[in-house]
Amino acid sequence: MSTKQFDVVVIGGGPGGYIAAIRAAQLGFNAACIDEWKNDKGGPAPGGTCTNVGCIPSKALLQSSEHFEHAKLHFAEHGITTGEVAMDVAKMLARKDQVVKQNNDGILYLFKKNKVTFFHGRGSFVAAKDGVYEIKAGEETISAKHVILATGSNARALPGTPFDEQNILSNDGALRVGGVPSKLGVIGSGVIGLELGSVWRRLGAEVTVLEAMPAFLPAVDESVAKEAAKIFKKQGLKIELGVKIGAVKSDANGVSVAYTDAKGAEQSLAVDKLIISIGRVPNTIGLNPEAVGLKLDERGAIVVDHDCKTNLPNIWAVGDVVRGPMLAHKAEEEGVAVAERIAGQHGHVDFDIIPSVIYTSPEIAQVGKTEQQLKAEGVAYKAGQFPFLANGRARALGDTSGFVKFLADAKTDQILGVHIIGPMASELISEAVVAMAFKASSEDIARICHAHPSLSESTKEAALAVDKRTLNF
């Protein structure tokens, strides 16, 4: 039986992979994508961690829990009278699953629309010969001249404490908790820990977050991190910094965590469920890189250059399995760029203006340099800040927490970083990304007419604040 031959084969159907396959097909290549994710019926579920157990389902739960909290605490302010508010967790999870399925099905439709051949199963290298790579695609063997690896990442477990997804949970298990735990522990105050901790706190869980770092959200602008810590504490999220985790024990009664606090005192935390959120590790399980001599680094990531080329000709890698931030949109941009480079075009990704978002309430979004980075680099800068408390639309929404902050070069006024904590920060940050892509100054944003009343006026006002001339504060 002859082996099916393709111009481009993508291993992994997450954001980087499926987008790369579609872009390759748009450029005229005979493209295929291999992905092994399964739904609860054993059928294909492309979309990777992001769609199945990450970005999409977590946002669905965040939305449901926000509705619940609004109904319980804030509807009365609007004159809306309700009876006793209750959460049907099973129905909430069913809605989350439906949202995931819609995204899975949407990707399969896009493959069909763009004539991408899809293989459901694990993709792995078999051999390389005469510039062609032989690849196992589920039950079939195929070949390709160009291979794009987009195999993603897995949750990092605590040493000696494997996930059982019943009591000790990764992001996967944390999205499938069948009822509201009375007490929930979270180890790690990163994006996943804060988002999922927020979900269950809103629904009534007592949430304690244990963080090894001495500073809260150290990768976030310091003023934003301080504001976030203050707001989260007021909401009831208990956060302990500078802790050292000891023994973690799980039994029928729940989980106990022994730890040393920042002052060196021995402490113990007893919870019903424990979410481990201490980062992610590159996933090359089953890829069989040894078969072709693919180089990995000490972290298990695939080694690539700035253009996502590996050590092997015509093999590329994108997304979580390579260097750089583990963000779905970063993977997508790399996937598009690689497909275009294969076609001889000049695919480009500007790693300096990749936005990052934490979907808590309030949301946190940033792009570019933080104030502490600029200080460390000795860059002379000006800062401007505007609070949502002074924004008319935020008042009407009933959500005036947080602010917008601009950082601009002291001499040229070029925007160096924008940091937002507040309502719809994930949407507002896009204006800053566009501005920085075109090397705009804060004055450029200050001079652009923004619709009134809108949250985006806070962006304009923060830009005005760089020159100390805000109009509404």
Automatic annotation (TrEMBL):
Which residues are in the Pyridine nucleotide-disulphide oxidoreductase dimerisation domain?
A: 354-463
Instruction: Give the UniProt record's GO annotations in the biological process aspect.
Output: 2-oxoglutarate metabolic process
- Single GO term (MF): flavin adenine dinucleotide binding
Q: What class of enzyme is it?
A: oxidoreductase
What positions does the entry give for FAD binding?
59, 123, 151-153, 320, 326-329
Q: Pfam family of this protein, just one?
A: Pyr_redox_dim
Obligatory cofactor(s): FAD
The chain positions of domain FAD/NAD(P)-binding read: 6-335
Q: What is its EC number?
A: 1.8.1.4
Q: Which InterPro entries match?
A: Class-I_Pyr_Nuc-Dis_Oxidored (IPR050151), FAD/NAD-bd_sf (IPR036188), FAD/NAD-binding_dom (IPR023753), FAD/NAD-linked_Rdtase_dimer_sf (IPR016156), Lipoamide_DH (IPR006258), Pyr_nuc-diS_OxRdtase (IPR001100), Pyr_nucl-diS_OxRdtase_dimer (IPR004099)
Please give the name of this protein: Dihydrolipoyl dehydrogenase
Species source reads Roseateles oligotrophus
